Amino acid sequence: MIRVVIADDQGLIRGGFKALIDSAPDMCVVGEAATGHEAVGRVRDTRADVVVMDIRMPEMDGIEATRLICTDEDMAGVRVLILTTFELDEYVLEAVEAGASGFLGKSVDPDELVQAIRTLAAGDALLSPKATRALLSRYARVGVAEAAGVLDSARLPELTDREREVVALVAHGLTNDDIAERLFVSPLTAKTHVNRAMMKVGARDRAQLVVAAYQSGLIRAGPS
């Protein structure tokens, strides 16, 4: 079973998410939190696999809570899914740098949320297309220097041509299934290429791989 903690300051939203998640046969909610402080404590106490984290909460916001969770060795392996109504570029960048493995808007369909939790629990990461565009826009305005040092993006040229092609598709928000369909390969092969690329550049997950793609200049921000 995938163990999930829900962190949101609105009880009605927590209740809706809990009913949805508990209805899935392979996951269950093991804790709820109304503040960032509570979220960190619930994750530590329950040994959750995935945290569905809101950004705007009292006492401590979701970004800071994410940073504390992802830098604590006692909570190693916990994956954070940022779920918010504010898919703004500064939030996306901060979430990625804090260690979040996923970023979705609250307008996401119920099935998409459940699948996103499964994706993170399996060790993958994801950004919604809108969040990916926001991240791209952020780099377009402030340049990659602001996030320099996150990764050794100079190692990106070490990738094979196919791996670079896959990284470019990841940076445009494509899932492994999307990449497999685009390149006429199996989803497993697509995932293998993504994992090898992450290993070579030292990326923790797909979100950091997107950062590496923009830092290195492999992908440039633009209207498309």
The overall average pLDDT, rounded, is: 82
Rough shape? globular
**Overall number of strands:** 6
Strand order of the largest sheet: 2-1-3-4-5-6
Q: Could you tell me how far the N terminus lies from the C terminus, measured between alpha carbons in angstroms?
A: 40 Å
Order of helices and strands: EHEHEHEHEHEHHHHH
Number of helices: 10
> Biggest β-sheet, characterized?
6 strands, parallel
Low confidence ranges? 142-151
Please bin the fraction of helical residues.
40-55%
Class of secondary structure makeup: alpha/beta
The radius of gyration over CA amounts to 17 Å
Strand content: 5-15%
What would you say this structure looks like, in words?
- With 224 residues, the protein is α/β, with parallel strands linked by helices.
- Helix content is 51%, strand content 13%.
- The chain is built from ten helices and six strands, in the order βαβαβαβαβαβααααα.
- The protein has a six-stranded parallel β-sheet with strand order 2-1-3-4-5-6, with helices on both faces.
- Helix 7 packs across helix 10.
- The longest helix has 15 residues.
- It is globular and about 50 Å long.
- About 4% of the residues have low confidence.
